[in-house]
Description:
Largest sheet: 5 strands, parallel
Oligomer: single chain
Bound molecules: phosphoric acid mono(formamide)ester
CATH class of the largest domain: Alpha Beta
Helix content: 25-40%
CATH topology of the largest domain: Rossmann fold
CATH architecture of the largest domain: 3-Layer(aba) Sandwich
Radius of gyration: 19 Å
Amino acid sequence: MLDTPARETGTGSGTTWTRKDLLDTDSLSREEIDLVLQTARGMKEVRSRPVAKVSTLRGVTVATLFYEQSTRTRATFEVAAKSLGADVVNLTASGSSVEKGESLIDTVRTLEAIGTDVIVMRHFRSGAPYLAARHTGASIINGGDGTHAHPTQALLDLFTMVNHLGSVEGRRVVIVGDILHSRVARSNAWTLLRLGAEVTLCGPATLLPRWFVPEVPGGGRCTVTTDFDRAIEGADVVMALRMQKERQQRGLIPSLREYIAGYQVNARRLERAAPGALLMHPGPMNEGIELSPDVAHGAQSRIEEQVANGVAVRMALLYLIAARSRS
Ligand code: CP
């Protein structure tokens, strides 16, 4: 048996983690999500110790394999793995044999051949982690694939919300911005609906895919609207998304000025939300576009907390996934 911080802090829930990979949140059950949150609570306690390190994953090798830029996801996974005593290998497409034409399949098989147990990967193509997972015995954690999914971001966002609200059941969460290109919005919608939240996806019509209206049997509701001033009324959580200029074809919004006029979260708009509403953003921010600087750094902003919680949640996921293969 592994020496688990979760067990030390008594957070076992009776549910066990059985998945080799974490590719999205769409198929996670309520019990699995609760297990991640409970385990992350134990990890947060570990992070608060004077020496924020345990040896739970000693002998485990974690590789980060990033084909696209990242600050938060890559850094927090590295800190998370090292906090659990794992060995870490960091690879980016630039500077690796990917530049010489090595395929994704050969790359993950190479990492497996050198003893890698868990590969955290980010790829600019939607679906790439699914392909990788089929061709390696190592576990794959999706650190963001194209416009499709970002499951660890959704779980750390949920952890942050639950820490403040107790539960998201019946709570109103408004996700505003470039929904069309947002893997964060998609993965968040699945976890939030599963736990009974009322989710509103809001943005300009050209950035709002009406075909993406997720439904979870027995879960909360999802609505789609272009009217942000109405959507934010009474919201418990307001999550602004980055305008993904690098993924947009030209001409999806008339101008940034018009976008700001209709969709920027500013002090005037935030006043319309529920008192003490949580203001969130997955980062990186285009400050002055999605959020006005005063609210981005104001009392309701949970943005830095999201980043810090990313370490605890990613420790939990590494632990659950690595422990499954070692038990
Ligand atoms: N939120 C997020 O995925 O940030 P990075 O791109 O910096 O990893």
